[in-house]
Specification:
Blueprint: H1 2-19, H2 34-43, E1 51-53, E2 56-58, E3 61-67, E4 73-78, E5 80-81, E6 83-85, E7 90-92, E8 98-104, E9 106-108, E10 111-114, E11 120-124, E12 131-132, E13 135-136, H3 144-149, E14 162-165, H4 178-191, E15 201-209, E16 215-223, E17 238-246, E18 258-260, H5 268-277
Parallel strand pairs: 1-5
Antiparallel strand pairs: 1-2, 3-4, 4-8, 6-7, 8-11, 9-10, 10-14, 12-13, 15-16, 16-17, 17-18
Amino acid sequence: MKKLKLVVLCVIVAVFCVFGQGCFSPYKYGGERVDLYTVAVNSIFKANGYISSGEVFRDPIIEVIEEDKYGRVLFYYYEGCGYYDKEHMYDVAYYNDSYTILIMQKKMDNYVYFYEDYCYESHKIEDTKSLKDGVFDYTKLKFSELKEQNDWNKEINEEKCVKKPLVVRNKENLNVSEKTFEKIISDYAKNTGYKGNDAIYRYNRYNTSDAYGRELYYVWGIGRDVYGEGVSLTSTAQYYEFAIIFNPDGSYTQDVCIIELQDTINCKDQILAFKQLNQWNEPYIFN
């Protein structure tokens, strides 16, 4: 019996480490373009930073498309849950339904520079048959608007850039407790008509920070008792996807710190407005 309890405990700990926030992800980026990887994981909301095949984590697909005369890089980024294609001898990832085109302004020393909120555009994948050598076909896309927003072929303007240190793994949350996430989500759900008392929060994923230490997170949850009739096999469930911003000291204001997202692929404008509401990149006064 003791041995069985130990096995069960080990399984619980392993699941917590993978899906919770108490352990670091086993994945560490091993590709050559750490600079482009850093831009992507700091820009794409909901980014994992890896392709997962069961318990195996692999580098996301990163491919340079074009460079301008000042060294800007236009590139492709894709990640997701995948499997191994024996016929073509490469990993393919069909379970994430979008890919992203990004522009890095420059890399200098151990930092990358890019236009926050304007350096990327995500595209929904409508047809997985467009896969070629592990990359979805982006050749028919026009990048003129993205290039214009990022001053393509103009001199680099550092004043318009954010500066981020190179990273090889997406940051794990170490500062905010799961109880805090659960409280924020539960309060939101009840304020929007949810009647159950069950725990809704499931996991969080760090996205990026501003210049003063505010942190943006993607958070996922499931409410299994929408009408407050008790959790059962027939109870109505509701799935939630949120963006949450914490102040540098870990505090938050319930009315403005959380938004619910219906489309996490095309949410760039919504995230930008959310950041502005939370005074993103404005000086923070500690109480």
